[in-house]
Amino acid sequence: MFGAWVCWFMTAAKSGVGLEIGAVERVTLNTIAEVCGLSRPTISQILNGKGWYREDTRARVLAAADRLGYRKNAAAQSVITGSMHTIGLMLAPSDRDSLLPGGLLAGIEAGVGQHGFLLSLARLPDRDELANGYTPRILEQIVADGLLVLYNARVPEAVASMIDSHRVPVIWLNDRRPSNAIYPDDVMAGRVASECLIEAGHTRIAWCSLTWARGVKPGHYSGVDRREGYLAAMRAARLEPRELVPEQQLVPDQRVAWLRAQLAQPDRPTGLVCYSGEIAHAAYAAALGLGLVPGVDVSIVSIDEKAKSPIGMTFTTACLPFPAMGRLAVKQLITRLDDDAVADSTAVPVELVPGDTVGPPA
């Protein structure tokens, strides 16, 4: 019965009868060859853009493949080419340690598509899994040609060693390493954000970071680099640095109240350089709570992916170049696939985007 049905399917395809493709077995090169009355090697060459064939023959094969819903067998292609044509994006075991901005993912997807690759997602093992010897399949088996690794917090040495030991080409994202890494120029971000306020005439400018308590080493290099950019700009302008950093770790719900108390002081800063967009929003809310108008009574510069805020405001922002980082990371990884050479790390420049939150000091 099944064989007779397949014979009908082939006959119907030759005659152009409409088919319910979703109900049939996977269409293969042999299927298209039977429909078109050509050899399997001929079909393979035409579908892969190779060989010299008459245009009407090529058009007939392509039309049949489209009509039948043919999809290339990536596994078979990988056997022939020696490449899976897949890039793996490895994330930390928790979302907190692998913040994946939309712009970064969009840049990665654009780069992967531009080079004709697919993108596969995987999670790195947590500490317990590492202790038990667990290895992700994406490392244990050849299911990706190379890896992009996104681990926002300090990467555990065991994780880095595990990746290195499998000798998979890798590019680290948002991680300042001496080689094979792509990250924002966070020193530049802190500097241009501060220079914006200096050029507007402010002299009482504070670095505002509520993510870590005073004296605690930041869990991510950007906490050090952005502050260093701020300090460099203040030194160049011969201005006294100020820092709004709490003595103890604050939970997010405490940030607005803490900032409100700092901005209520008689010698409060007139300009704030905020470590992140989240902190800039807290500063904005604290100012409003005191009757201060952001951009008039107190100026705020954010360091974030986008200048446009969900609340409708456009913050003056040192914009982090996540889309460009994603595209560049894919390009460098594919270059490593060809020669496996160590790639120089790249700090991608940021751009200052003017907004509504900076004006001259009141």
Structure description:
This protein is an alpha/beta fold and 362 residues long. It folds into three domains: 2-72, Orthogonal Bundle (434 Repressor (Amino-terminal Domain)), CATH 1.10.260; 84-184 and 322-348, Rossmann fold (3-Layer(aba) Sandwich); 186-320, Rossmann fold, CATH 3.40.50.2300. Helices cover 42% and strands 14% of the residues. It has helices at residues 2-15, 29-36, 40-47, 55-68, 74-81, 102-114, 127-131, 137-140, 157-165, 186-199, 221-236, 255-263, 277-289, 322-339; strands spanning 86-91, 118-123, 146-150, 170-173, 181-184, 205-208, 242-244, 271-274, 299-304, 316-319, 346-348, 351-353. It has a six-stranded parallel beta sheet, with helices on one face. Strands 7-6-8-9-10-12 form a six-stranded mixed beta sheet, with helices on both faces. α6 (102-114) links the parallel β1 (86-91) and β2. α2 packs across α4, α6 runs parallel beside α14 and α12 crosses α13 (277-289). The radius of gyration is 28 Å and the shape is elongated. Residues 1-24 and 78-82 have low confidence and may be disordered.
**CATH H level, superfamily name of the largest domain:** Response regulator
Tell me the number of helical segments per DSSP (H or I, 4 or more residues long): 14
Number of domains: 3
Give me the secondary-structure category.
alpha/beta
The count of β-strands is: 12
Radius of gyration (CA) equals 28 Å
